[in-house]
Design a protein that fits this description.
90 residues, YefM-like fold, three-stranded mixed sheet
Length: 90
């Protein structure tokens, strides 16, 4: 993550915002007096919030772990050829 001063950020606001949105890379803005802050695109923020929701949801994480185990042991549900054709529309 890039780190810049609040003065640099202010002087090149448009450039840094475009960079953050286009490259999906947050920027840490440092201040002499006070806390630093992070600039992040709205899309990236929403993705982070969704990830946090999943990680904090114990039943969902248990379901993910069980699904991984099922996949690794190759014990998952296997649809028939007809069911696959119906699902894929072929």
């Amino acid at each position: 993550m890039n780190s810049i001063s609040v003065n640099q950020f202010r002087e090149n606001l448009k450039t840094y915002i475009e960079q953050t949105v286009n490259e999906h890379e947050p920027i840490k803005v440092t201040r002499r007096a006070g806390d630093d802050f992070i600039v992040i695109s709205a899309d990236d923020w929403e993705r982070e919030q969704e990830t946090l929701y999943v990680l904090q949801n114990n039943p969902l994480m248990k379901q993910v772990a069980e699904s991984i185990q099922t996949h690794q042991t190759n014990n998952g549900y296997k649809p028939t050829k007809e069911q696959l054709n119906e699902i894929t529309g072929f």
